[in-house]
Amino acid sequence: MARAATVAALLLLPGVGAQPAAGELVNPCLNATFEALPFCDATLAIDLRAADAVSRMTIPEKIDALDTKTGPIASLGLPAYNWWSEASSGVMGSRPATTKFAYPVTTAMSFNRTLWRATGAAIGRERARS
To answer: 56, 109, 123, 130: least surrounded by Cβ within 10 Å?
Structure first.
């Protein structure tokens, strides 16, 4: 359930019917359909926001979100996403010695944008060296 809540908190289509580029992460709370919902209310505690997002998902959506290839989550307006491309186990095609980063779901649950950027920058530098 935590993975689904993280997905819900981080990814939503930028507009009704809009399609993000492959692998593009978008802000869930910029979509007029969802911006007034509790999971977009930054004044609420994170656990309340996550619980709200998960409560909106159907059982099949929750089950599907447990795989590395998460299909669209219509109840939250989320596009499909392939978590395998997250580089936590090294960048695919990279040299054998790669840094092992925390899984995206655990990094995302920190709700620490500085940590996200630092991790992404380290992955980018590692990829550039390969």
So the answer is: 130
Q: Specify the pTM.
A: 0.52
* Rounded Cα–Cα distance for residues 109 and 74 (Å): 22
Helix residue ranges per DSSP H, 25-112: 46-56, 59-64, 104-108
Cβ–Cβ under 8 Å, residues 25 and 10? yes
Q: Supply the DSSP string of 35-59, one letter for each residue.
A: TTSGGG-TTS-HHHHHHHHHHHS-H
User: ∠24-96-94 over CA atoms, to 5°?
Assistant: 30
In whole angstroms, give the CA distance from residue 29 to residue 40.
5
Instruction: State the burial class of residue 20 (Cβ atoms within 10 Å of its Cβ: 0-12, 13-18, 19+).
Output: middle
Question: CB atoms < 10 A from the CB of 73, how many?
Answer: 25
Which pLDDT belongs to residue 123?
A: 79
